[in-house]
Amino acid sequence: MQSALIEKARGIQRKLPIQEIKKFGIERRRDDYFLNIAYPSLQAMDSIEPEVIVHTIPSVGNRIALYLHIPFCTRLCYYCHYYKVFNAAQALVEAYLTALMKEITFYSQAFGGLKVESVYIGGGTPSYLDPDQMKRLFEHIRRHATINSGAEITFEMHPESVTLERLKILRASGVNRISMGVESFNDTILASENRGHTVDEAIRAYEAIVSAGFENVNLDLIYGLRHQTISIWEENLERMRELKPISMCAYYLRVKTSTPDAKLYQSGADGFPSEEDLILMHIMTFEAMKEIGYEQLIVDWFIRTTEHFHKYQDHNWRQTDRIPLLGLGASAYSYLGGIQYYNINDIAQYIEWLNRGKTAIWRGEVLPFDEKMRRTAVLGLKMGIDRQDFRSIYGVDFCEQFSSTTK
Ligand SMILES: C[S@@+](CC[C@H](N)C(=O)[O-])C[C@H]1O[C@@H](n2cnc3c(N)ncnc32)[C@H](O)[C@@H]1O
Ligand code: SF4
After folding, report:
1. pTM passes above 0.90
2. In this predicted structure, what is the pLDDT of residue 407?
3. Distance, CA 404 to ligand 2 centroid (Å)?
4. Helix-helix angle 131-144:90-111, to 10 degrees
5. What pLDDT is stored for residue 182 in this prediction?
6. Is 125 in the pocket of ligand 2 (CB under 6 A)?
């Protein structure tokens, strides 16, 4: 017998114009496209002279959103598409931190001091750092940048590296938002994705974070994983009712070519939910989260109180031509004064370039005015577009600008 949630979601699914969508050719197979995280994407970029960017810096002001990439993990989760290296020795982690600190110092000088509106430390797994490394990193940031009081400071953690000692350092360093990957509340699925933790361990890690005084905690889940049935996905949503984190990201599985999941998917899609079931899981998520008391703010992101609205995301996706994004570390991307650029995505080269007194800037493009508006439109697909805001930034109406595509 199916639950009331599944029944309701199936009712909604039946009314969706899926056949029409197929006719227009909008429907995509999960493995033949990839959702852009940035625009324009790395693949569309050529090399860029770092001087072009450095010369632009004085014109953008020094209020920024700061992203730092920590590319270390203990194992390869089969779905994961982020840049990372595994089980790095301490010497490599130290060399990376030293290079990252040099990059922070370089930009602080180039900007004439940084005023940081939001900080996001992501990965990889930032909690791979040991407590002393975390402490030194934050001390360095604060020596070279002023983090505005009240700024959101997010740190990503993996359940296996949530320890009291790390949590204490993060609190003392001013971190006020923790985002932790759980991905599934099912032990079989966790094992088949090579997550390296159990459901119980993830719950204990979440409880430790809350007990350490972090109110604003986000949990990541993924739907569409191998062996994930509709009822298993429903159990995940039920866990949200029990745990009630401030926010939850429910990502659908993005099948990126380089990942083990892509190989498994291409070898027959065996064990992966069908496209129809993916849509059903999507609808179930909206319905269940609404019922539990969450609001959907971004396409895959649900929040319990608007007071904890994710400011870095807002800066990154919606305020993109107001608050420059400075992304540091191997593979990080930035958007400053209309230039989208990417750092080198190789940790050895990153360290070497910084040690030689160079920047890590690798590929990028100065966007013409109309491309800046297109960028805002593309990023807006995820978080929405404020028409008035758009007019005040670009001096034109969004719908008029894109009239041929908005009809
Ligand atoms: C950098 S990881 C989070 C922190 C930590 N490394 C961990 O795994 O617990 C960022 C998140 O991206 C999501 N993610 C990674 N690869 C994905 C994929 N192919 N499809 C959907 N979500 C993905 C996962 O939910 C993951 O928690
Ligand atoms: S999901 Fe997290 S822990 Fe797993 S490989 Fe990706 S970044 Fe590393």
Report:
1. yes
2. 47
3. 40
4. 10
5. 98
6. yes
